[in-house]
Amino acid sequence: MSEPRDDHAAAAADIAAVEGANTAFYEALEQGDLEALTALWLPGEDLTVSCVHPGWPVLSGRGEVLRSYALIMANTEYIQFFLTDVGVSMTGDTALVTCTENILSGGPAEEGSSLGPLVGQLVVATNVFRRTLDGWKLWSHHGSPVLAETGEEEDEETSS
């Protein structure tokens, strides 16, 4: 007779693994590590990966998506992500992560300076992961800039 399966423990382990894969994605971007970033995306073209960077058209296919990250990394001197509002939803072998990317980035340094001007940006993102034999891999990333103020900020302004 086999031991009863603890579905709650398995689900918690899956959520932790997806959160780890999501964190690894942003760490690879921060470190400019294209090799690590490449390893995080679904291999091959069995399920076509896709990516939407803020303000860009949809990129489809592993090659096109990874080229876009190589371009971003080559033109970004410094980038750091502070993730907030992270949520994970799962069904079967698919996981959906939503989060807010609080981004601090700097471009190439100007003459006589070690780093270009730093710019802050707020982006809401959806990352879709698929379970593979090698762990959870990115299937799709979609980032959209936050252009409108949130209701909380508006409430603070009207109560002052």
Automatic annotation (TrEMBL):
Transmembrane segments: none
UniProt cross-references to InterPro entries, sorted A to Z: NTF2-like_dom_sf, SnoaL-like
Entry-linked Pfam families: SnoaL_3
Domain of life: Bacteria
SUPFAM superfamilies: NTF2-like (SSF54427)
Residue span(s) of domain SnoaL-like: 18-146
PANTHER family (alphabetical): NUCLEAR TRANSPORT FACTOR 2 (NTF2) FAMILY PROTEIN
Protein name: Nuclear transport factor 2 family protein
Lineage, broadest ranks: Bacteria, Bacillati, Actinomycetota, Actinomycetes, Kitasatosporales
